[in-house]
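step=encode ok
step=design start
structure_in=
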């Protein structure tokens, strides 16, 4: 299942990150604000439980996250979405998975992994700006699903139909939340219209 966000303010931010003339500071700031939209929507799908809260007037019922949450940015570009998720969900723990795309085969190669302990109450949130071929995301999800967990969510800035289809096929139980769904991949495996290489634009390694 995939959820595509909408809204005028969000669309304006997406237009900013698509613009090739956006400077690195403008690009980063827009990614952060889009990340807040993604984090808020993602938080709506976290398991919850009721608690009782005593206000100055009376006792009422509140709602809190049930179980622990681990946010996993796929290195390196996923780091660009980490801060907004920590802003919205400050009590989560953070794990890291490093994958590098082989530009010839378009397949991911793992070079780093460091994940906090999980259990049957854990929700994993995997964050990566671009869901293109789906190779990096499906490799990460395959690794995570071998660990104790309750739920897995994937959150992305921009997705291609090919990537959505790949995750739906390989991991049909994973919820995908994306800020935009683009037209297709080009022959080089990049999303079009897309925004170019998110990692390069975030970190200035063009």
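sequence_out=
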């Amino acid at each position: 299942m995939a959820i595509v966000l909408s809204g005028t303010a969000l669309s304006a931010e997406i237009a900013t990150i698509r613009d090739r003339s956006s400077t690195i500071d403008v690009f980063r700031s827009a990614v952060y604000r889009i990340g807040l939209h993604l984090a808020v929507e993602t938080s709506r799908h976290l398991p919850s439980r009721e608690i009782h809260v005593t206000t100055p007037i009376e006792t009422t019922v509140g709602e809190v996250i049930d179980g622990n949450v681990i946010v996993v940015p796929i290195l390196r570009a996923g780091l660009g979405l980490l801060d907004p998720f920590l802003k919205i969900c400050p009590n989560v723990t953070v794990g890291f998975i490093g994958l590098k795309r082989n530009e010839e085969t378009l397949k991911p190669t793992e070079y780093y992994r460091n994940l906090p302990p999980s259990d049957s109450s854990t929700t994993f949130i995997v964050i990566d700006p671009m869901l293109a071929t789906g190779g990096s995301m499906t490799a990460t999800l395959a690794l995570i699903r071998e660990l104790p967990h309750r739920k897995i969510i994937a959150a992305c800035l921009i997705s291609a139909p090919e990537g959505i289809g790949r995750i739906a096929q390989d991991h049909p139980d994973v919820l995908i939340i994306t800020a935009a769904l683009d037209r297709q991949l080009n022959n080089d495996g990049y999303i079009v219209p897309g925004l170019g290489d998110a990692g390069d634009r975030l970190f200035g390694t063009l």
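step=design ok
step=annotate ok -> The chain has a mean pLDDT of 93.
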